[in-house]
Amino acid sequence: MTLNRRSFFRRTAVAAAAGSFLPALSQFSIGAQSSKRMTMTVRPYTLDLKHVFTVASLSRTTTPVVLVEIEYDGVIGYGEASMPPYLGESQESVMAFLKRVDLSKYPDPFDLEAILTDIDSLAFHNTAAKAAVDIALHDLVGKLIGQPWHRIWGYNKAKAPNTTFTIGIDTADVVREKTKEAAGFKILKVKLGKANDKEMIESVRAVTNVPLTADPNQGWKDKFYALDMIHWLKEKGVVYVEQPMAKERLDDHAWLTERSPLPILADESCQRLADIPNVVGAYSGIVIKLMKCTGMREAHKMITLARANNMKIMFGCMTETSCAISAASHLSPMVDWADLDGMLLIKNDAFSGTTVVDGRLVLSDGPGIGVKRR
Ligand code: MG
Known about the structure:
CATH topology of the largest domain: TIM Barrel
Number of strands: 16
Bound molecules: magnesium ion
Strand content: 15-25%
Number of helices: 13
Number of domains: 2
Largest sheet: 8 strands, parallel
CATH architecture of the largest domain: Alpha-Beta Barrel
Strand order of the largest sheet: 5-6-7-8-9-10-11-12
CATH superfamily of the largest domain: Enolase-like C-terminal domain
C-alpha cells in the first residue's frame, strides 16, 4: 500500500496529463532522502461539487484543496487542506506556506506537540495548510503504532453520531428535490441567511419530518429578527442554530443566547482554541472544524476546553475529500452533533474511509485516520 516517490511522480504525471491539476501549480517535495527522515509531498487538487452550493455570502461549483503525503520509513500519512473562499486561503497560499515546512529536521514523528507548535509559529493564518500537515502526521503516527486515532484517544467508535446533510440555499423546487435525495439522513442542516429563510424551511418540511439544524452564516442583521426567527424555527423542529449574526457582534449574540429557546453555536466567531474564552457566555456552544483550527491536535484540545466551560460542541467541515472528513470523524464520538458530510457533496473523492450508513458516521478500523487512496 506504500507508494514510493518515483511511482507517485509517475502517477502524478499521468494525472496532470489528464488535466486533473491546475497547470500553474505543480507538486513539490521537501525533506531528506534517508528513509528515517520525514519527506512531504504536496499537490493541488480541485473538488467538483455535485450541485451548485449556495450559502448566505456566495455560490460555487468547485472547491480548491491541496493533498499532502508525509513519508517516513516506507510508511505514508495522508493529509488535506480545503479552502472554501471565505477562509482566505488558496492553493497558492497553501503551497507557499508548505514550502516553508521542513519536516526532515525532526527525527521523531511522534514528537507531534513540538512539530505542530513549530509549524503553527511559521505564520499567523494558513490554518488549512497547517491542518494538512497535522492530519498527515496523525495518519503517519497512527500507522506506525498500528491503531486508529479513536482507539489511541480512547473513544468508542460506536458512539459516533449521526451526521447532518446540508441543504444549500436554493429555489423551493430544488430544495424539495435535494431533501428527497437526502432521504437516508436522520438530521438535516439548512442554510439560511437570505430573504427566503421561511420558504427554505417550509420546502424541507414539505418532504421530511426529521430534526433540522439551521445555519444563517452571519446572514441575520437584527437581533430581534433573529430571536423571532429562532422561536419560529423551534416550532418547525430545528434543534440548534449556528452563527446567526456577524461574528464580531458578541454582545448581540450574548443577548440572543440568553433569550433563545435553542442552543446558539459559534462558528465564524470561534476559529481556534484561543477564541473559546471570548465566546464563553455569548454562545451555548462552538463549531469545531479542522480547517479553522489547524487540525486534529488543536481540535482535541478545543473539545476539552469547551466541555470544561459547559459548552455544546458541533464538529463541522468544509467540502473535503474522505481524507479530512475521516480525520475529523475520529473525534466525533466526543461531540453533541456532527456535520461531516463534505465528501458526500463532491464527485471526485480521492480517498475512501469513514462512511455514512443510515445517517450515522461509521469509522473504519484502519490505522491512523483509516483512509485509502482511490
Ligand atoms: Mg456554519
